[in-house]
Amino acid sequence: MICLNKCCDILVVLLSIICLQECTTNLFENIDPQYHLVSEAYSIAKNLFNQGRNNYHRLKSKSLQTIDTFLDLVQIMNEEMARELRSAVVKFYKIRYFHDFTNYVISLEEMIDITEHCLIDPVEKLTQIREQYHAVIKNFEDVRHFDTVNKCHKELPDEVAATHCILHQAVLFNETMQESLVSIVEIKTRQHAQDMNSSLYYVQKCLRDFVPKFFEQLLLDAYTDKCGYLRVVNASIADLVNDKWRNNITVFLEKWSPLVKLLKERYQAPPPQQSLKDPLFLTLFAANLSSVDIFKTLY
Ligand SMILES: *[C@@H]1O[C@H](CO)[C@@H](O)[C@H](O)[C@H]1NC(C)=O
Ligand SMILES: *[C@@H]1O[C@H](CO)[C@@H](O)[C@H](O)[C@H]1NC(C)=O
Ligand SMILES: *[C@@H]1O[C@H](CO)[C@@H](O)[C@H](O)[C@H]1NC(C)=O
Ligand SMILES: *[C@@H]1O[C@H](CO)[C@@H](O)[C@H](O)[C@H]1NC(C)=O
Ligand SMILES: *[C@@H]1O[C@H](CO)[C@@H](O)[C@H](O)[C@H]1NC(C)=O
Question: Could you say which residues form the signal peptide (predicted)?
Answer without folding.
Answer: 1-23
